[in-house]
Amino acid sequence: MTATPNLSSVQAAARLIKGKAHITPVLTSTTLSTILGPEPITNEPRHLFFKCENFQKVGAFKFRGACNAVFRLPEDAAAKGVVTHSSGNHAQALALAARMRNIPCYVVMPSNAPQVKKAAVKGYGAEIIECEPNLEARETTSQRVLAETGGTFIHPYNHPDVISGQGTLCLELLQQAEEMGSPLDALIVPVGGGGMLSGCIVAGKGLRPDLRIFAAEPEGADDCARSFAAKEWIPQTSPNTIADGLLTSTGEIAWPLIRDNCEDILTVSEQQIIDAMRLVFERMKLVIEPSSAVGVAAALYSEGFTKLEGIKNVGVVLCGGNVNLDQLPWNAAQ
Fold it and tell me: Which tens digits make up the pLDDT trace of 284-320?
């Protein structure tokens, strides 16, 4: 395990997961760039570049970090398997990575997790251990499984190898934007636990110290924004948002990187998230989950970003595309 994520560890992760994870495309939209509008002082057009992690394996960026963590394990440790507690994308990502390395994977999931999620994790070959639907039960059950198996615990976001793996998306994005003739001035990344954001900070600032990095967060789960304003870590309490991938408190590894390197934490309303998600569906023909739409909403609707000067080319991370098509939020809002 790498002690602290840095540019070298992200570059090493990119080499390790090459051929295992997808290199996801970067797409543009004239319509969405027009909604953002011109640079306030020069009146030059601004352009949005969307990093489509909804096309990643398991439908989310999470596979990058899980893959790096699994394939970085020494042979003797890997043979005993990997353990995590998750009911979301990380569970599927870790299960798939473990299957690719042909090692056991044990996933502790709350008993009330949706059957479709349990089925997906089982489909990737993991063994599910159910527990009561609370954090204490998840942690104690995980400790029991670790003791029984001798496996290695892979945290969904508070793990240096996971963070380094997530940072590979930023390496790709910066290179892809350069190849498109539009070097990025700024990057907007959704934030929950902060694994993806801190990985992008390490990679982005490591290659481009002048890159302006912004986090995007729902108003209903704004612990990172509150922490950033106070300059001290404040835990998440009673989050309430449709962006279910962004409900967790910022991790202890990620927080100092965010505190010291982000320009701002942009918060958006539930309606703005829904509007942005629908806009991407309709105009870009992309299936994205609400957590992805948080970054889009921040780019288009947050005055903390739209009125900034000196930014022309903006990268926005579409972090995933796992959405229940039977429960699209604009239908529920009617």
Answer: 999 999 999 999 999 999 999 999 999 999 999 999 9
Give the ranges where 150-253 is alpha helix by DSSP (H).
Answer: 160-179, 195-207, 223-230
Q: Does the annotation mark 87 as catalytic?
A: yes
Catalytic residue, chosen from 87, 198, 249, 291, is 87
Task: For residue 201, give the nearest of 209, 65, 12, 49 by alpha carbon.
Answer: 209
Given the residues 51, 62, 118, 205, select the one marked as catalytic.
Answer: 62
Predicted pLDDT at 112: 83
Domain ranges (residues) in the chain: 7-60+160-332, 62-153
**Residue 264 dihedral angles phi and psi, to the nearest 5°:** -165, 160
Q: What is the CA radius of gyration of the chain?
A: 19
Among this protein's residues, is 57 annotated catalytic? no
Task: Kindly tell me if the per-residue pLDDT of 84 is higher than 80.
Answer: yes
Closest by CA to 49, choosing from 295, 217, 272, 323, is 295
Q: What is the mean pLDDT of the chain?
A: 94
Cα–Cα distance, 90 to 255 (Å, whole number): 20
Please identify, in words, the CATH class of the domain defined by 62-153: alpha beta
The topology under which CATH files domain 7-60+160-332 is Rossmann fold (3.40.50)
pTM over 0.90: yes
